[in-house]
């Protein structure tokens, strides 16, 4: 199950996954101020990335304005992921969609259906509760046996009565701060979103930084470069472990589910070593 027999009996929310931030934002072209990765989605999957955070605009993968970077239609990337899932029947994949254009689920489901990846989509048997946590997540083995191995979250406009497999992110997930300004001396781990201080079952550990330009009262954040990631050692096992120690002080023994990096391949395979460490495998 995701490469380790030890993970088969664990519930989905008890497993850590290697995750990329703005997974689609890779070259070409090189040198853009909006890039977050060096490798394609296919390469990320081959390397071991199992969770993907993507911005969605005009049913294309791009950030606010597709004039800066446009990685094409959502359906085309879903086809790439489906091909991988077809060839790797014991892998569980997660998509977290940032719905900047405010699409309704019915606007997105045709892309899942055309790519035929919807056949793998996980549909929970539980309903949202007022505590927003404590759900009976299935084990990875159960998800694999049922072939419901694709978990899809969206941060806005979810409606499971309309599309059962596009799940409301903030019902199940909390994120720790993402607007970390370079250089970062210590990554924080407090609950940033939602800002209601109510824990959820899943945690996104944002471990990346931005360059910040302040003009008057306005902050303009752009991703740091791969060179800066390497220079500051953000993706090193030491940096990840230091962040983990901070998180233990906040979340005690909770699992950090989605370890989210920019330029995840800078630092070699330290991301995957760290995920294995969190998983104890």
From TrEMBL:
Transmembrane segments: none
GO molecular function, one term: phosphoric diester hydrolase activity
Gene Ontology biological process: lipid metabolic process
InterPro entries (UniProt xref): PI-PLC_domain, PLC-like_Pdiesterase_TIM-brl
Signal peptide from the UniProt entry: none
Domain of life where this protein originates: Eukaryota
PANTHER family to which the protein is assigned, alphabetical: PLC-LIKE PHOSPHODIESTERASE, PTHR13593
Protein name per UniProt: PLC-like phosphodiesterase
């Amino acid at each position: 199950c995701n490469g380790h027999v030890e993970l088969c009996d664990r519930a989905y929310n008890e497993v850590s996954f290697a995750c990329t931030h703005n997974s689609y934002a890779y070259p070409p072209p090189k040198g853009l101020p909006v890039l977050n990765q060096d490798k394609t989605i296919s390469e990320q999957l081959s390397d071991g990335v199992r969770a993907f955070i993507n911005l969605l605009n005009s049913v294309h993968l791009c950030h606010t304005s597709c004039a800066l970077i446009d990685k094409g239609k959502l359906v085309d990337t879903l086809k790439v992921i489906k091909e991988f899932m077809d060839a790797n029947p014991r892998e569980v994949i997660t998509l977290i969609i940032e719905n900047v254009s405010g699409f309704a689920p019915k606007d997105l489901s045709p892309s899942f259906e055309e790519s035929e990846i919807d056949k793998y989509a996980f549909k929970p048997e539980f309903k949202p509760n007022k505590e927003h946590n404590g759900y009976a997540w299935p084990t990875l083995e159960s998800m694999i046996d049922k072939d419901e191995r694709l978990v899809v979250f969206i941060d806005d406009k979810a409606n499971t009565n309309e599309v059962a497999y596009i799940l409301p992110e903030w019902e199940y997930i909390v994120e720790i701060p993402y607007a970390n300004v370079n250089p970062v001396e210590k990554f924080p781990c407090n609950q940033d979103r939602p800002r209601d201080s109510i824990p959820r079952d899943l945690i996104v550990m944002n471990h990346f930084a931005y360059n910040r330009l302040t003009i008057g009262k306005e902050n303009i954040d752009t991703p740091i470069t791969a060179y800066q990631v390497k220079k500051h050692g953000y993706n090193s096992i030491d940096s990840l472990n230091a962040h983990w120690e901070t998180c233990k002080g906040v979340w005690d023994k909770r699992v950090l589910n989605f370890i989210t990096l920019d330029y995840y391949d800078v630092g070699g395979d330290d991301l995957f070593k760290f995920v294995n460490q969190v998983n104890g495998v």
